[in-house]
């Protein structure tokens, strides 16, 4: 176990070292979350100014949706980009000449995604509180469960993307930036699932994010915690994470057999 932890930390340190003396890399982590917070925060302020108190809760719902969606997005990007950096530096094959095992690689990438998510989302949360008087922590202790579910969703999406990169090579790299944006319309980030056409309801309810956002709006609009939505989000995350892990294990094995770990990205 100690050896495994040492290998995981070694791979993490390789990525952390990239940020130690590179302020552009650190700035990039917070750039998009802060920019999105500014756009949607000003939008919420505009609605509140025009519609009065009736728009305050709607504005809070928008900003809460932005911040929680950034948790998923930064978590997914953190894992995917850390993996892509191994490919871009032609380091993936070298890493697996060492005793590093696939699950240790995934553990290190997950740990890096947590660090990158915190570095990106924390400034946006502070901005929402300082500029727009929106305190995400007003949701209460249930916020921790929301964060965990949104992070886990980001991880299984990232594992799916990494699996496709292992299978199809550099041609699939663009998916690291595009997959979650394609899922956003069905995730009920800014509106309830009921707004979607009826035939899309099963699609939305198959995504953990839709249940998290429905739960968030339940607290903000009605002051009620929907444990049913939380249970559904947790169960779906366990299912999709298991499926993505199996897909990753299969594609990693096939990539190793084909010798793609050395040639991928070329």
Brief rundown of the structure:
This protein is mainly alpha-helical.
Q: What does this entry look like structurally?
A:
This protein is mostly helical and 266 residues long. The chain has one domain (2-263). The chain contains eleven helices and no strands. α3 runs antiparallel to α5 (102-132) and α6 (142-168) crosses α7 (175-183). It is globular and about 60 Å long. The model has no long low-confidence stretch (mean pLDDT 88).
Number of domains: 1
Question: What percent of residues are in strands?
Answer: under 5%
- Could you say which overall geometry the principal axes of the C-alpha atoms support? globular
Q: Cα distance, first to last residue?
A: 35 Å
Secondary-structure content class: mainly alpha
H and E order? HHHHHHHHHHH
What is the C-alpha radius of gyration, as a whole number of Å?
20 Å
